[in-house]
Design a protein that fits this description.
By secondary structure, the chain is mainly β. The protein has strands spanning 3-7, 10-12, 18-25, 33-39, 46-51, 58-60, 68-73, 78-83, 92-100, 103-106, 110-114. Strands 2, 4, 5, 6, 9, 10 and 11 form a seven-stranded mixed β-sheet that branches. The radius of gyration is 13 Å and the shape is globular.
């Protein structure tokens, strides 16, 4: 069975850092592009970052560019999101997503709260 399990969320002060992890199983991880999405209360789910199958191409939302870094380790079947200089507006549930052609899989999400 396909599983994507996020971890690393929590409460952090503005300006702080968190590293989110997403552990994948049940599919050929290296064939899938990976993405991080987030959804804040009352807002649409938005694409935060994406990374190609081999890690050679990454993209970021303008709101996080320069602060967040997506990476992957195909040997570990894992994708990461390093979040620095966090702002209150980064508060959201963060989800990882695997995608290949028409197929996509979602994790259950991890809460990130940025507050003083």
């Amino acid at each position: 069975q396909v599983q994507l399990v996020e971890s690393g969320g929590g409460l952090v002060q503005p300006g702080g850092s968190l590293r989110l992890s997403c552990a994948a199983s049940g599919f050929t991880f290296s064939w899938y592009g990976m993405m991080w999405y987030r959804q804040a209360p009352g807002k649409e789910r938005e694409l935060v970052a994406s990374i190609a199958t081999d890690g050679g191409t990454t993209n970021y939302a303008d709101s996080v560019k320069g602060r967040f870094t997506i990476s992957r380790d195909n040997a570990k079947n894992a994708v990461y999101l390093q979040m620095n200089s966090l702002k209150p507006e980064d508060t959201a549930v963060y989800y990882c997503k695997a995608t290949r052609l028409w197929a996509s899989y979602w994790g259950q999400g991890t809460q990130v709260t940025v507050s003083s």
